[in-house]
User: Fold these one by one.
Assistant:
Number 1:
Amino acid sequence: MIQVAVMGYGTVGSGVVEVIEKNKEEINKKSGEDIEIKYILDLREFPGDPYENKVVHDVEQILNDQDVKIICETMGGIKPAYDFTKRALLAGKSVCTSNKELVATHGPELIRIAHENKCNYLFEASVGGGIPIIRPLNYSLTAEKVDAITGILNGTTNYILSKMEKEGAGFEETLKEAQEKGYAERNPEADVEGYDACRKIAILSSLMCGKNVKYQDIYTEGITKITEADFVYAHACGKTIKLLARSWEDKDGSFYAMVAPFMISKTHPLFMVNGVFNAVCVHGNMLGDSMYYGRGAGKLPTASAVVSDVVDCARHIGKVIMCFWDAEDVALTGIEEAKRRFFVRVSTEKESKALQVFEQASVIEADVPGEFAFITEEMTEKEFNKKAEETGIISRIRIEE
Amino acid sequence: MIQVAVMGYGTVGSGVVEVIEKNKEEINKKSGEDIEIKYILDLREFPGDPYENKVVHDVEQILNDQDVKIICETMGGIKPAYDFTKRALLAGKSVCTSNKELVATHGPELIRIAHENKCNYLFEASVGGGIPIIRPLNYSLTAEKVDAITGILNGTTNYILSKMEKEGAGFEETLKEAQEKGYAERNPEADVEGYDACRKIAILSSLMCGKNVKYQDIYTEGITKITEADFVYAHACGKTIKLLARSWEDKDGSFYAMVAPFMISKTHPLFMVNGVFNAVCVHGNMLGDSMYYGRGAGKLPTASAVVSDVVDCARHIGKVIMCFWDAEDVALTGIEEAKRRFFVRVSTEKESKALQVFEQASVIEADVPGEFAFITEEMTEKEFNKKAEETGIISRIRIEE
């Protein structure tokens, strides 16, 4: 029997307990041993909860118990999760986490400590909720040189954008509705400004190159400036708008990472990823594109991913599971060097100026009063910014081919 | 250093050699040791080939060489692959294969022999080409009770159906074109009759339930009877037609598996899987739907999957990798018990009869001379067959919701 502690009895933590209970038979079979929850760490009491008697308030009780081999860290945030995780790993206890903030900030250090202590720090649930993506990257695509990852990694913004597209509604009203339905937080900044997607693409990018991509270095732009009119134009040219988290390595070895709204066309595999669903496209030099799709958040999907890590740890007690993520920081190339086409909106009075500056513009036929829009030829972001300043534009959205 | 032999230097086998050479750095890093190809088994000579001096014609040379730890079986077919694989496993050599025929026929026996000899029989490449699907099922969805798998598992038929839809062309002419372009074999039976997809869903279904689903027991219907008119109707009601390989477990524990053309609607995750792409939808009781998408065939994608198995074997020399597939046969429930809606075409003169027999039919507005079509309410296949016989229908396609 393998004894497990759950740290943080909130949404994901209680989901972990539920998954372990409900799918006991499958989980024990795949673990090769019975998995038992010994402690649940939380500051609160849970009178009447079926696991009431497992709740403890002092982390020492868990860290000092030799029988606890695996810990699920579902607390979130850096403090005190970082300290608890480090001490658990130093004590040789594997930690499985859904905490993207902590993984993006201290991932390589915690992985190193784990490996030095013959245990594991696993984080399948930190990206894409229940979608298996960390393990496919680490265990499946091992014969590939992965050179690009493109994901829809945030359910809230994808829900808002899908809704805006479908209903022709504006950002503010759609956000409000999403908040009322519980799909967006009362303080929605982390989602709508792209910070959440930024942490997640930092993790995936680090695994892609085996070194550390600092989330602070990633250019991040949210969806707050996307309007109804943008979708009118997108629709007119057979495209949609998605918040993409992207990282890619150029042929010259330059490494880029960014989060921003992009226009994508109907033939793009991410086009049909709607609502709260997430998906990750991975490009490898032998396989080409592969895609992983599913529920990017939610109690049970996320908990299922944490428990899949528990199973992996249970099967590798005393052994290190392959994970390459060195502490050495990757020097990202500034996105102003990246080449692409741009969707641009300009007020009607600047039409002749715009078409003079953007020589190869292909105008989009759509009926939006007082303005017009076009798609540029391919150019670097730097070139584009210069032309945009010279013209005086309303707004622009990048195009992902 | 870990020495590898490749058996069969055809398309996939030469791809394996190419992948190991091209991505040497990544592969050696992830394997933890250098991977070296020692032998290539083939009846032919390959004068001028860079690996000419590794080619051998006698399997004994490989089976008797203690240094060879891993064998890639890329020969295909049962004979002599079955015999070679068995002897390799008995000698403690792991085998990685792309041979779906052999895996579907002798999978559980070969896995058992491997485990008894502390080596592994891995077959990621046997289903979905380069799409990671076996490993996600075995290692990632370990906290799930998987209750349904639905896949587009054959590139040739998906190419033909996509082309028929796009161009309004008939089956025969599209098949001919696919053959000319090399997307279909000169003898296309295995693809267009669904036999290839049947082998693949047998493998996935077996992994889903941990027991043996015999491919011979799976109801299999190909795409040869699909016509232009079917796509006219499909288009008229926002659907398309795909050859789906499906298996699912009902709440009462009945287990079904089948291969057949289905109509699916725009909101189905498999709707956008076009051309030579394949995808597999997996439904779990905690995660809901997840989907795995990519190139289902082709030299390098398939070879990449074989080599990912080599890496896995290299990391587990002398250790058994988890795989549950017992020899015990699953008793499949006949599909006549399965409930669904049906798309039905009937000649105009039988309209009143048809609408009398199928009371709740919703007629599809489309202009096909001399006939009309409708979608039935939900009923078992048995009930449907009775009504169809009573009416005298032109054809029917099952609906997947």
Number 2:
Amino acid sequence: MSLVVVGSMAFDAIETPFGKSDKIIGGAGTYIAWCASNFTPVKQISVVGGDFPQTELDALTARNVSLEGVQVKKDEKTFFWSGRYHMDMNTRDTLDTQLNVLANFDPVVPDSYQDCEFLMLGNLLPSVQSSVISQLKTRPKLIVMDTMNFWMEVAMDDLRKTISMVDVLMVNDSEARQLSGDYSLLRAASTIMKMGPKYVIIKKGEHGALLFHGKQVFFAPALPLEEVFDPTGAGDTFAGGFIGHLARTKDISFENMKTGIILGSAMASFCVEKFGTERLRQINKADIDARMNEFVQLVNFDISLV
Amino acid sequence: MSLVVVGSMAFDAIETPFGKSDKIIGGAGTYIAWCASNFTPVKQISVVGGDFPQTELDALTARNVSLEGVQVKKDEKTFFWSGRYHMDMNTRDTLDTQLNVLANFDPVVPDSYQDCEFLMLGNLLPSVQSSVISQLKTRPKLIVMDTMNFWMEVAMDDLRKTISMVDVLMVNDSEARQLSGDYSLLRAASTIMKMGPKYVIIKKGEHGALLFHGKQVFFAPALPLEEVFDPTGAGDTFAGGFIGHLARTKDISFENMKTGIILGSAMASFCVEKFGTERLRQINKADIDARMNEFVQLVNFDISLV
């Protein structure tokens, strides 16, 4: 029984109003693995070029992230993304995208991954995501999918097909509006649930996240921070915390998903404190526990006082 | 011992993407009074013209809102505001402002208001707000002040002076940033607390509200709604719920303020469901209790599951 993560492993170059990074390690799959491996072993599916540092792969292996499903294409280059964040840190411009090895990525699920019970589909081509689902002989207990507006514009049919195959869809607020054609997030979530997923998570960046299931709604705030240094990977880290918690506890009840959402928010609040995955590499269980307690303080109130 | 509310009573004309109102009853003081009178008697300070309907005044009197401090200027006209909301319902353009009776408003605190224990200063000229404070012979137990960006642009000195006299300052996120010169809301609140108030409440519209006190932070979400019909007065209604709860319970602890914030959010969620004060006039205690329970469901999670 295991958690399988599908997602890009990449180089990023990031500019924010507060600074500029060199070419650093990024990619949705990378963030998810760094985060989820705090809670449970991870079996990774991805592709990198010959230029991807072996030390980075070794660091993941040391955290109990299996790389058997990570293809290394010696003569090709790793996916590269470069972007610049605006002052609000919620919006950004893409400066450069070089697909490289991602252009023809054909994921292969190793036999040792066939025990997959929890499947996290990080943001990637919808056809790559669905290919992984199709290769699994036994359907996982829970399939969680992240995606983005780009696929709504260039691959809507594939996207709809993949969405219909998953249990939990994770999108941000503007993507939920675009996908559903409805401005109200409550109605947007309801529309998306009719497309297949029984659960919808809408990420609102610094404004927190919403979990929908049938008529149930749960809201988790983002931690107010003095400094958001680099939001890159925050959504992926959130996903990693959510699926990592569910995979560790093996409990997919709505109640436990709520805790997963809070844990995802806590992990994302670390992620944004430094460039790239730097902060995620530093934290330990005590840091995570302390931050979870901050979330309890942040939202806890006594209804009996009314 | 009583709650005194200072605020405009007005006519509004509102356009939203979903509809357009006639000239309807509005004003910060009106919304606060309609809301707070669910919880405690209100002593109102305001000014209206001869054109303000007597039936509206009678309706407030029937709810235990004392109008002894409301000046009626028979030969003048009531304050008028007209605005148009954008699609996001968080931003709006002012189409018309006619100050009328507000232009020379000189508030007079009646003797019967001198028992004021809780003072709610609705958004209004800072000099009018401070005049009311100065007229009270005994300082109230708690002074809460709402304001807006307009006064930062035209009356910053008066605004700073008034802010230094109050216990709780209530502003929205962009106003907190403008007043503090800091983009981070955590640092903005800290800067504002150095200006005098021991508590800062930052309203984020559909994204909820934050309460700050020293190093403590509390977050209350807004209820996700199918339809936000008209956001006018939501912030004032929020203030009315907050101060109404504190005045009724006579408890100004941080813990009880948290409950006040949730109650304010619950009341605001009713306000936006119809044009103007219409929805606020319809609700009863059972409606309010039911909505408070929705807030508990919305944010409640079990940390023991981690």
